[in-house]
Task: structure prediction
Amino acid sequence: MRGMITPELLAERVLRTLNLPAKDKAESIIEILRTALNDSRDSAIAATKAAGIEIAEEEAERSRSVGARAAQQTALNIATRIRKRHIEVRG
Result:
């Protein structure tokens, strides 16, 4: 498994590729990369939670259609828990 690419490592690579001195530009590029990384992470978390809610709701509907009330309730509880945490993260 390869090592993690950190904002610091990526900034170093960008500066080296552009032949720019690291001492003058590194901190601002690192901060830009860190912000972009956090934004990407937040988007990925939101998308994952949305997919989880959708799957749980689909499973609840499928369970309802075959009369599996306990499974339906479990799926609805899972969707509710994901939704609650999703709102807490965004709030």
